Structure of N-acetylglutamate synthase:
Amino acid sequence: MEQVVSPVPADRALAVRRARTTDVPTIRRLVDAYSGDGPRLLRKATVTLYEDVQEFWVAECDGQVVGCGALHVLWEDLAEIRTVAVDAERRGLGIGHRIVEALLATARELGLRRVFCLTFEVDFFARHGFVPLNGTPVSPEVYAELLASYDEGVAEFLELEHVKPNTLGNTRMLLHLRPPSDDGVDRRER
Ligand SMILES: CC(=O)SCCNC(=O)CCNC(=O)[C@H](O)C(C)(C)COP(=O)(O)OP(=O)(O)OC[C@H]1O[C@@H](n2cnc3c(N)ncnc32)[C@H](O)[C@@H]1OP(=O)(O)O
């Protein structure tokens, strides 16, 4: 069930918008900052970031990109939030929560019902209603279809043996989204 997270104070000039190709070098730096030793983010080739740019949202503060996050659709009703990162000097200001809110709004627009994430930041995602889960929340038929994906994140979602070293210590989490009501007002479950 989704939960409402406190907004960033109004005095901060923060905009969360869809990423552009010109943001990729900054996204590259944000990903690199957290994908080294004790990796918190999956390493990504720059070409993959360009290929996936339409999945990304960025947070811009006073004209500077200071955070990013992506929503990767896995199946008809299911997506994954991935690659959420905030500049080390701007952490703890509510930017990460704003990015996740934008990704969840996108998930609802797409008609998705469930959002998965794999993370060390359990409390952060729990604030949005994500709960830990075991296993892979898809039917055996969908599991078999997902095996056809070349995406490494999908391999992590499927808990395939060759990517298990990437995911050690991470928690698998799932959020059930409530669809927007017919009158257009999105009433969140609490
Ligand atoms: C699925 C995945 O992508 S997993 C990978 C997650 N990313 C990483 O691990 C990379 C390294 N970590 C980061 O980049 C960041 O710390 C993130 C993305 C996890 C969080 O981003 P931040 O901008 O620091 O988070 P944000 O400030 O929104 O919230 C963190 C805490 O700051 C505090 N905070 C301070 N000021 C504020 C504010 N104005 N509004 C909201 N929260 C605030 C809160 O205590 C909040 O804690 P809460 O979760 O209990 O609400």
